[in-house]
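Need tokens for this chain, all 833 residues.
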Amino acid sequence: MDPMNRGPEEYGQDGTDDDAARPGRPPRDPMTPDFGQQTPALARTVQLVSGDFLVTVNPVDGSEIEPLPPGGTSRSSEAGSGGERPERPAKRSAAERAELRRAALPPVPPGPALPRLPLLERQEERERLARLLARGRSVRLTGPAGSGRTALLNAVADDCADLAPDGVVRLSGYRRTPGELLHDLFAAVHDAPLHRPDRALLLDLVHDIGAVVVLDDLEFGGAGLDELLDATPECAFLISATPDVAAPSADSHLEEVFLGGLGRGGGLELLERAVGRVLDDEEANWAGDLWFESEGLPLRFVQAGALLRQRDQLRADPHAFEEFGYFADTAGDAPFDADGAPDVPLPSLADGAAPAALLASRLSPSARATLTFAVALGGELPHQAHLPALVGHTHADAALAELVSCALVTPVGAHYRLAAGVRAQLEAVGYADDAPAHALAAAQHYAWWAGHPSVTPERVAAEADAVQAALAALVATESGAAVLLARTAAPAFAGGLAWAAWERALRSGQEAARNAGEVAEEAYFHHELGILALCAGQLDRARAELEASIGLRGALADKRGMISGRRALALVADRSGAALPGGRTAAAEEVPDARYEESASPPGGVPAAFALPEPPAEPDTLVTSKVAPAAATTASGPAPSRRSIISGTRRNLVAAGAGALLAAVLGTVVTLGATSDNDTPDGDKVTTEQSAKEDHGDDGLTADKPQKDSTSRPAGPGRDGATGSAGAPAPSDSGAPSGKPSDSGEPSDGPTGPTGKPTKPTGKPTEPTGKPTEPSDPPTSHDPTDPPTSDDPTPTPSSTPPSADPPASPDTSNSASDSTMSSPSGSGGPSAA
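Here are the structure tokens for all 833 residues:
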């Protein structure tokens, strides 16, 4: 099923009102349809391919991203929808390019077709541009706004239709970057639905395009223009820009053609064509003054022609514009001329140079309301299909024809916006007084429309400029409405492959969510920006955005959102070759439900089995394994073999690594018990109540290193005796004497951290004498016969809670071998752990 054109049944609408066709659903009362249980609409998800990633645009929890498998390819219309890598995109045919070009034109105003004005005094420039393009040269046409650059480009494009193998490609540079224009050029020539190539493939594909690229309203120059030209060596560009745009670089080899205004004769002829009749002497003199004031810009003469047409209507019917309410200066009381018609004076020269206010006053109420919305949206005109809903009039779409005929709007790409200077002129007469209210109404309408199941992402992407204008107007004032609009439109922009609009909507929504204090929505925007940065190869930026999203969602206990963010973060770590924060790896993210739980560190600190060693001290586990038998012999009789000690060491290292892996997934360190054999005595079990405890003023855990003159902690198998004792073993039923480390300072044979790095011993092991010697630095615990202090309520061995395991035999040789490496005390003898 194509995710862009889903059937109504997939959104909870089966296309019929017959309740019998809805199995499992109770019949609805026609009098109370809202009281019945309604089937919620499914989230509109879109799967697309971006480089080596399969991106699933999910508007609920955030987009998901995964690498494409290296296997087969697919040429289906849903590229990558099944996880398959798409084939190299093929070029469109001439008929497909023509159809795409017609679809990219601005909408035709309803009603009778408007007269097409001729291209006057531009024949020389037209022929020169065509000759340069035929030679494969690229040209930049520079002229002020309103000089007729777009009309000249259209004429030259018709002349060059058969020059290049890939035909003529029309692009709009309005608010576009070089990278965005390369993607637009790729989409115009290649047939690749739901496929956005990465940078390397994009440059490879556009390198082979041979077309005449007509690029209107370019907004950059210099290095950006060089990047565009260098990436497309087989294309000839015809570029138009205003004089305020940066000039091309000196070595760009770009021809420059400057376009000025019309001459006096050309201006008069264009005015007569716009009016539809010959001018009288008074009007001709007025047009001459207008030519001098406007520097011959064609736009001013087209607008002046609209003023003269309105004057003709008033002379024919003095009450022609009274019903509109704005034109109060009617000709009812005006004198009459020799023919008996009302003598309506010509507009003043100031009205001719800035005619927007006077022209708007004689338009219909729907047209004036449309201008009000355009001013509120920064000059962007909503599509005519939205005008009835915005204006509140059934036939408000006809207002577009009025605005186009008066030249108050001009085409920009596939939509219209206010012509040059019109917005400032309308704001001067009060059209911006209620701009915030109109921007809010437009935002609410677009939020409803963009989220409707019947609206495809391509349609939302075509309205991107107006949607972004509404967002920009409400970010600081109406943050809640801006968040709703960005949250609804951003997934549609992503699915429609309008990723420049997607990024701008995400950033506007992020700012609005921060202003409104909506933490969940801010986390969503951070997540989407991370996905976007990952697709663009910006790994550092992706990591920062995803970590911010995970942190915010963790504060909200949003488990599903955290899972999606962690998967994307693991992919970032995999691509960058770096570990995740806290030593996490991609494999750690695959631990099941345990990863959903977030917990704080245990009250007593981090268990010694997972505590990192101090940088200076590096006890050598290999040397420890040689010293351990002597201490074990002194403590409890026969010493265990070296093989059993090494085996115990490996088992404990594996346990420590597994514990560190699980702790990394949880986000915080959790308390885990040290592993041991089933025949270990009860005193050798670490329970949830027995964990290392951190002393006041200590730099770390007491289990990390022996503390000098520490005589206040019991050595029994209680809370500190299990993991915090330094040398005294737990008393057993067999009455075995307690072992203490020798004065040589035997190192700890327990794992020093998840890395298991061997370290050097602190001293040379002494020969076993059968009698333990006192260490140079006393251990952290003391003789088990000392009573516990008041600040450490650790139970004595007699009060130790029974373990779940069955009691072991008095022979503790096996448990001593296992506990040798699990003891964090630094003792070489058997420990209570």
